[in-house]
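Technical annex, item 7. During the second reporting period the consortium partners agreed on a shared format for inverse folding records so that results from different sites could be compared directly. Each record opens with the tokenized structure and is followed by the designed sequence. A conforming record, contributed by the partner at site C, is shown below for reference.
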């Protein structure tokens, strides 16, 4: 009986362990599928912008500049200040008035009372009086308004507005850089995926030839040397596939970095290596770049800010006129509410500032000269960048046009060569050359399309807008 229960317990325990140790057939697969994220190019750009610290900082710069505009505008408005205080005096100071002094304050006596008052004058008691009050309230309101500041406040406000515009242009430049980076990484991954497929097709081709060569060796229609050559070709092609897969992994890692994803995240993309050829005029491209590039707008705004800064500095030793108004009230337990008000005009005329204004003006002029020098350098760099992008685009377009139909012809040649090899009309060496030609044609075509897409992306970045 004991053995029966013992055996039942062992069987139950083993079944329980089996349920625990053997997972469900789809659990791991479902978990892996849930962790995979698929991105189109548009989704990739959107995700990169949302996760980019550089883009977020640029957005914050715009917000900061907007607040500075509000701050500069506030200086042009009337300023109202209110202040008040309450004072409690615990022990008030006192003074004592002598009796004869009080008699004098009461005035000359009347004839009827002169005798009695004369008798009591010397008997008057001194009077002790507290000075001030224990509870004291006082308030003060003041309004000031700048009437004339020699353009100082106005130019400071205009500077703030220009700084906001400059921050917006800088944000546009950051966005364009991120978009270009994502487009390059996205299409590089598409290219490596396509190259992996080409390597797979090449491996399948040489493996079929190796099997056919072995069969021919068995029936005596080929030599062992041909079998060795076919096997070497299989090993070499398999190595190329391994390299292509490694390149694909590296491209995926680069895209993850561009998107701001964790390197542990599994990533897939939805897109194709295809494009429509465009005709680009270099002169028009240069004109568009000079009109649209946010970097040019940014430095032009910086130039305007520098000009405003010179005006602000020059106003440092100029007179300033302002108006003001005051309202004061006070109250305590010994008097009724007391109020007063006043208005006036104030003028401030700097006589000597130790040449501070002259130094500030010179500094502003030097800064403006630096901005203009940087602007010239920027224009030259953008022109060179635009020309280079146009040349790369034209080169990639010519390569695509030159390879038009080449892959199809090479594929047809490989099909014919396979038939001839099976019939013994060509050698394995000749078939290998044709296989390599077909594979190279595929790779060249994919590379040319990829280079053209990247050239378009770089040209659009160079001109600051999309190609029509």
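Designed sequence (site C submission):
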């Amino acid at each position: 009986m004991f053995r029966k229960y013992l055996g039942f317990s062992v069987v139950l325990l083993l079944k329980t362990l089996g349920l625990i140790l053997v997972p469900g057939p789809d659990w791991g697969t479902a978990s892996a599928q849930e962790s995979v994220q698929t991105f189109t190019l548009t989704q990739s750009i959107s995700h990169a912008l949302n996760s980019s610290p550089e883009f977020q900082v640029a957005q914050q710069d715009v917000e900061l500049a907007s607040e500075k505009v509000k701050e500069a505008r506030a200086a042009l408005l009337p300023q109202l200040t209110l202040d008040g205080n309450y004072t409690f005096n615990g022990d008030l100071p006192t003074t004592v008035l002598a009796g004869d002094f009080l008699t004098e304050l009461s005035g000359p006596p009347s004839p009827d009372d002169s005798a009695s008052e004369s008798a009591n004058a010397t008997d008057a008691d001194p009077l002790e009086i507290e000075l001030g009050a224990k509870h004291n309230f006082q308030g003060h309101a003041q309004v000031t308004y700048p009437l004339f500041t020699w353009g100082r406040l106005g130019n400071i406000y205009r500077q703030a507005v220009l700084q906001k515009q400059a921050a917006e242009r800088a944000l546009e430049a950051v966005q364009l850089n991120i978009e270009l980076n994502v487009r390059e990484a996205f299409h590089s991954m598409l290219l490596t995926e396509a190259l992996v497929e080409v390597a797979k097709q090449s491996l399948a081709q040489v493996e079929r030839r190796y099997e056919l060569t072995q069969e021919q060796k068995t029936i005596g229609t080929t030599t062992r040397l041909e079998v060795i050559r076919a096997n070497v070709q299989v090993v070499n092609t398999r190595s190329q596939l391994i390299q292509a897969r490694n390149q694909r992994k590296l491209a995926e890692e680069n895209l993850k970095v561009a998107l701001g994803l964790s390197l542990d995240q599994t990533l897939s993309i939805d897109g194709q290596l295809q494009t429509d050829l465009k005709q680009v005029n270099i002169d028009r491209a240069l004109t568009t770049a000079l009109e649209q590039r946010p970097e040019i707008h940014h430095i032009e705004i910086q130039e305007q800010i520098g000009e405003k800064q010179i005006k602000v500095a020059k106003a440092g030793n100029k007179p300033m006129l302002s108006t003001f108004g005051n309202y004061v009230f006070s109250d305590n337990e010994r008097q009724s509410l007391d109020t007063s008000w006043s208005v006036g005009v104030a003028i401030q005329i700097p006589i000597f500032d130790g040449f501070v204004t002259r130094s500030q003006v010179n500094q502003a002029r030097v800064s403006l000269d630096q901005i203009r020098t940087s602007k010239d350098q920027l224009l030259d760099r953008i022109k060179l960048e635009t020309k280079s992008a146009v040349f790369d685009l034209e080169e990639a377009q010519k390569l695509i046009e030159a390879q038009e139909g080449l892959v199809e012809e090479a594929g047809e040649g490989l099909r014919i060569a396979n038939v001839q090899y099976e019939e013994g009309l060509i050698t394995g060496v000749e078939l290998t050359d044709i296989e390599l030609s077909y594979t190279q044609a595929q790779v060249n075509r994919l590379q040319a399309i990829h280079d053209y897409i990247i050239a378009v992306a770089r040209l659009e970045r160079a001109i600051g807008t999309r190609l029509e």
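The longest strand covers residues 135-148. Residues 152-219 form the longest helix (68 residues). All partners now use this format for quarterly exchanges.
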